[in-house]
Design brief:
Structural class: alpha+beta
Strand content: 15-25%
Distance between the termini: 54 Å
Number of helices: 29
Shape: elongated
Largest sheet: 7 strands, mixed
Helix content: 40-55%
Radius of gyration: 35 Å
Length: 874
């Protein structure tokens, strides 16, 4: 193969040294001939040998150098696929297109997901690759229809086509069935020898031939493409072999070139049964994808846009831009993601989060597009439109999840890739064996306890059919009974339903492989703040060191919403600044923290403002990660933070130790306040434990899972929260800095433990990426967190249990499907090889196998993850 040259758009370069770094990284790859990177244009050109390296490896080399090359994901619907081998053929065809990094084709969803270089690949090239492999892509014709509409139209047309073919074939096959019943059940002789002077053999020929042409054409065409174009064998080859064998043999007998029986009924019924199976399969695929379709149908069609003068205009949703203000009346859908700028209402977000209780919204709150405004009028400013909205991101995430299959699917794929050639070889072997050794095999089969289940054996044993004829029957039955499509559907069909169940319940999984990993988790590690607790800190205590301890709200964090104004006297103009009182401590702490956005800082600032305390702007500010802040206010250096911050600045915190321990034992986060090298006092914030946290921990324990907690908070506060939710204090890791959380997860997993890390998806990103499964909780309007494998749309720890239950249920369903598919083939292929099945029965059984796997997966749609999945009764 000749060398290829690819043009890349590269992001992240800031100087000429960056381009040199990327060039050296690319030239270090085996197979790369030349590499040039231009910092001025942010472009690169790489010449490489595709036999030695791949485009994906080139992209990885750029990523490893901490830069990125632009790529895009393209989704294409494909019709005409009949088995997992077809999907594999399309994958290979797409990956052969220059500029394609990877391609995944899902037989269950009839969809291809292609990652490619947009500078090098066009949609037309991808369409042509699919067509060259003998399949039909659903093209983007720029006719105004959405991608989903075109895909649905193609799928509905395929369902109608399969139904038309089935009805046509059934109508012509009904007389053939009558003839077969008359011959096999009544022994023949009940019908006249001719019909209008035409012998029965020719009548059967006239009925079977249109069936061969109409119903057989797709199978024969696909077989030609598979064998000649793609040099592979798929399910169509088996069907074409079985049906054409029966048909051609019957024609030869009818012409008097060979003595034997006619099998036109078998040739026709094979195609009718298989086409019926394809119809039921296509309809089942549509039903399995209904959950995503229902989500998309919930999207609003129009929006009422309000201009600066208050004029209202109803416009199509596609015309709404970021920054537009929209009026949403009671009962209407919020058109797109945004922020409430005016009004107050309750919003039903159940279609996104699965939570049935409406959520109160007021000015400044974020709202999600397509959710329902229950009461009150809202004016919403659009912040995300089109493909960036939460709804579209949910759908895209689920589609990507359905294209990524569990590891268990690799076993099925390996079996399927060798399946068809082995089946054909097996059929030839037994056909030849029956032809050469009929009496020996008939004697062997006659001694089996299964004898008498079907009819072919006695015929050859008694000499009522020729040896050659029986060998043909065995060959046709053996190729028809095998069903690689059942194997190919077993995993993707269940994965499609499982990920859809997750989406309906606010649990988004990045891939089918995540389902498998989540099921194997034996330990769940929670971040504390915002995960087990509300994450809304409130000021609870202000303690001057030379005065008494004062709780900002009487010491009860549950009632601290008002800032505890009753605990302080109103500021006095005659306050002695030399006296260390509550106001002095709080003013110093809040002024120092005014440069910070940390939740602890905001709680202190809000508490000070609630008491009317004037804050000074810091002249200098430094955040000390994991320890506190340092600021200069009115010429004095202020410190607010933990013991280590004080010690690092030569301040002894021991004078405040008793108060620190008291507050920390109450589950509060206490911070020392120092000015000019001397302690002033302490301030304390508290966070409320979520109502469902204890239930979530209890449910995980009931499943036999260990539960850990990681927090940057101090040991006493962490243990107090752990005790409240039911986590063993020995399983608490406190004082962990954000950058050290990943190391803490690694330590937990060091002995082979498979941990699920649950965090807010921002500060915990390294730990989420390190864990066996990373779960981001409460990210309803940002569902594409790169570090997480699972995204929970609600701030509910119980959804962690739901995610594990969905994973467990899906994997159980996959195993059921694989057991059926493998068991079916294991049992039926020997029966056909031993001459115990007529070809028509083999074809019916083959069709039933695929339909049963899909039906079993569809039954899973009834499952709700509020309870454990049970194999029985589902």
């Amino acid at each position: 193969m000749s060398h290829r040259t690819t043009q890349l758009d590269i992001q992240g370069m800031s100087c000429a040294n960056c381009s040199q770094t990327i060039t050296e990284a690319l030239q270090g790859l085996d197979g790369v001939q030349t590499a040039t990177v231009n910092y001025a244009t942010d472009e690169g050109s790489v010449e490489y040998d595709p036999d030695e390296t791949t485009l994906a490896a080139i992209y990885s080399a750029i990523d490893d150098a901490d830069y990125s090359a632009t790529s895009t994901s393209v989704s294409i619907a494909i019709t005409d696929m009949t088995c997992s081998n077809c999907a594999e053929t399309n994958e290979e065809a797409l990956e052969d297109v220059p500029g394609v990094l990877s391609a995944e084709v899902n037989y269950a969803t009839d969809e291809a997901s292609v990652e490619c270089n947009p500078a090098e690949v066009t949609h037309e090239q991808l369409y042509e690759a699919i067509e060259s492999a003998g399949y039909s892509p659903v093209r983007d014709d720029d006719d105004g229809e959405s991608e989903g509409d075109r895909r649905d139209a193609a799928r509905n047309e395929e369902i109608r086509r399969q139904l038309r073919l089935t009805l046509f074939g059934a109508a012509l096959s009904l007389p053939l069935i009558a003839f077969m019943i008359e011959k096999l059940v009544l022994g023949g002789g009940a019908l006249p020898e001719t019909i209008f002077g035409v012998e029965f053999g020719w009548v059967e020929f006239l009925l079977a031939t249109p069936v061969q042409i109409a119903l057989g054409r797709p199978f024969y065409g696909n077989s030609y493409n598979a064998l000649v174009k793609n040099r592979t064998a798929n399910m169509d080859v088996l069907i074409a072999l079985g049906s054409s064998t029966a048909y051609v043999y019957s024609v030869v007998v009818l012409l008097g070139l060979l003595a034997g029986g006619l099998y036109f009924d078998t040739a026709a019924l094979i195609l009718v049964f298989i086409t019926l199976g394809n119809y039921l399969e296509a309809r089942s695929k549509g039903q399995a994808g209904e959950a995503l379709q229902q989500l998309l149908e919930m999207e609003a069609d129009t929006a009422t846009v309000v201009d600066d003068e208050g004029n209202e205009e109803e416009v199509p949703l596609e015309e709404v831009d970021i920054g537009d203000r929209m009026k949403v009346r009671p009962g209407e859908q919020i058109p797109t993601d945004g922020v409430a700028r005016d009004g107050q209402s309750a919003v039903d977000e159940s279609m996104v989060t699965g939570e049935s209780v409406p959520v109160e919204k007021e000015e400044g709150d974020e709202v999600v597009g397509s959710t329902i405004n229950e009461n009150g009028v809202l004016v919403v400013e659009a912040t995300k439109v089109g493909a960036d909205t939460a709804l579209q991101q949910i759908v895209q995430t689920v589609k990507e999840a359905q294209s990524r299959q569990p590891e268990i699917q690799n076993l099925a794929d390996r079996i399927s890739s060798y399946f068809v050639p082995i089946v054909i070889a097996n059929a030839l072997l037994w056909g030849i064996a029956w032809y050469l050794f009929p009496e020996a095999l008939a004697g062997f089969v006659g001694a089996l306890p299964l004898w008498g289940l079907v009819a072919s054996g006695p015929a050859v044993a008694g000499g009522t059919v020729s040896v050659f004829e029986f060998a043909v029957v065995v060959f046709a039955s053996s190729v028809l009974i095998a069903c690689p499509c059942a194997l190919g559907l077993a995993t993707p069909a269940a994965t499609m339903v499982g990920t859809s169940i997750g989406a309906k319940n606010g649990v988004l999984l990045k891939g089918g492989d995540v389902l498998e990993r989540a099921k194997d988790v034996d330990t769940v590690v929670f971040d504390k703040t915002g995960t087990l607790t509300e994450g809304a800190m409130e000021l609870t205590d202000v303690v001057p060191l030379n005065g008494r301890s004062t709780a900002a709200d009487g010491g009860d964090p549950e009632t601290a919403a008002d800032g505890g104004a009753q605990a302080f006297e109103e500021p006095s103009e005659t306050t002695d600044e030399a006296t260390i009182d509550e106001e002095t401590v709080l003013r110093a702490a809040a002024s120092a923290e005014s440069g910070s956005e940390h939740p602890l800082a905001r709680a202190i600032i809000d508490g000070a403002e609630a008491h009317g305390i004037h804050l000074a702007d810091p002249e200098d500010f430094e955040n000390v990660p994991g320890h506190g802040v340092r600021a200069t206010v009115d010429g004095d250096e202020l410190l607010v933070g933990n013991r280590k911050l004080m010690r690092d600045n030569d301040i002894d915190p021991s004078a405040a130790e008793d108060e620190l321990e008291r507050l920390e034992n109450e589950g509060k986060t206490a911070m020392l306040v120092a000015r000019g090298g001397s302690l002033l006092g302490l301030v304390a914030d508290a966070d409320t434990v979520k109502e469902s946290a204890k239930s979530a921990v209890s449910a995980l324990h009931e499943r036999g899972l260990a539960v850990h907690m990681i927090t940057g908070d101090n040991e006493r506060t962490a243990r107090a929260v752990a005790e409240e939710v039911g986590i063993d204090p020995e399983s608490v890791r406190a004082g962990v800095l954000p950058e050290d959380k990943a190391d803490a997860v690694n330590e937990i997993q060091a002995d082979g433990t498979k941990a699920m890390m649950v965090g807010d998806g921002v500060n915990d990103a390294p730990a989420l990426a390190t864990a066996h499964v990373g779960t981001a909780i409460g990210s309803g309007t940002d569902v594409a967190i790169e570090a997480a494998d699972v995204t929970l749309m609600r701030d509910d720890p119980l959804d962690v249990v739901k995610a594990i239950r969905i994973s467990d249920g899906t994997l159980r369903k996959i195993k059921q499907n694989l057991f059926w598919a493998l068991g079916y083939n294991t049992a039926m292929i020997p029966l056909a090889s031993l001459g115990l099945l007529q070809p028509v029965l083999a074809a019916a059984a083959m069709a039933f196998s695929s339909v049963s796997v899909l039906s079993n997966s569809l039954l899973f749609r009834r499952y709700t993850p509020d309870e454990e999945y049970r194999l029985l009764g589902r």
